[in-house]
Design brief:
This protein is mostly helical. It has helices spanning about 1-20, 45-65, 65-70, 75-90, 100-130, 135-155, 155-165, 180-220, 225-240, 245-255. The longest helix is centred in the C-terminal third of the chain and has 40 residues, at about 180-220. It is elongated and about 75 Å long. Mean pLDDT is about 75; it is low at about 20-30.
Length: about 260
């Protein structure tokens, strides 16, 4: 038996070697061109070429920071925190899963931010693509709607906090607030609003947990976890009141 096994292994090894030698011959035809990519640094013919290159590098940098900008300067932060707190309030550990929570938060963000992005597209992107305005004017026009949105959602106390830490306690107009002051103030305001909404969401589910725990204690079922009994009732309550519609409506209206 050992001899037969060794002969079979040797035969398979020979077949494998022969097939490996024939693989290059069975490859794709040689007449198919293989593209190549080259990135080099050449000599600019004028200052315009340098400016275009710098703008391209700036655009690539902005695109690399796009996920952070989407999270920190839009409605995404408040929405995703409220949805996560809702899941914790109900007591379902991974239902809905994180992918669903983030996906729903993204779609709601697109819905809430649609007027802002339409304004940017109409007044900044399209005129720049049609060569009607310069890049600097387009950048300023694209930034103004985002600033207006953040200013409308930022509390004055948060603005004063960061202005005092910056050393500029007073400004003549709200348009004079620097971007690096407005962004963290907006983010702090969003976190505070999200946790306020999350607290309100916790109240009815906590009441259900307390009622179920009291009933179990009165019946002497001390070893039975209350969460096991209260979870179906919390899900039933959430479904009966059409919870997803209420949460979605409350989130969207909170930005207006």
């Amino acid at each position: 038996m050992k001899t037969n096994h060794s002969q079979i292994i040797s035969l398979l090894a020979v077949i494998f070697i022969l097939l490996s030698l024939q693989i290059p011959a069975l490859a794709a035809p040689e007449n198919i061109p293989i593209p190549s990519l080259r990135i080099d640094v050449g000599q600019a013919e004028g200052p315009e070429d340098v400016a275009v290159t710098l703008r391209l590098v700036l655009l690539l940098t902005i695109l690399s920071l796009a996920p952070s900008l989407l999270i920190l300067t839009t409605a995404f932060t408040r929405i995703v925190i409220v949805l996560s707190l809702l899941r914790n309030a109900i007591g379902t550990q991974q239902v809905p899963p994180n992918q669903v929570i983030i996906g729903l938060a993204l779609f709601l963000t697109f819905f809430v931010m649609a007027p802002v992005w339409n304004d940017i597209n109409t007044n900044a992107i399209q005129p720049y693509m049609n060569e009607e305005i310069s890049f600097d004017v387009a950048s300023q026009r694209a930034l103004d709607p985002i600033r207006d949105y953040m200013k409308s959602q930022t509390r004055e106390t948060d603005l004063k906090l960061f202005l005092e830490m910056y050393g500029q306690s007073q400004v003549e107009t709200i348009d004079d607030i620097p971007d690096f002051v407005l962004m963290p103030a907006y983010l702090i305001s969003e976190l505070k609003t999200a946790f306020q909404m999350g607290f309100i969401l916790f109240v009815p589910f906590i009441v259900i947990d307390m009622v179920v725990a009291s009933i179990l204690m009165s019946m002497g079922m001390l070893m039975l976890p209350p969460v096991m009994i209260s979870l179906p009732f919390k899900i039933l309550l959430f479904v009966m009141v059409d919870g997803w519609s209420l949460i979605t409506r409350s989130l969207v209206l909170s930005f207006r």
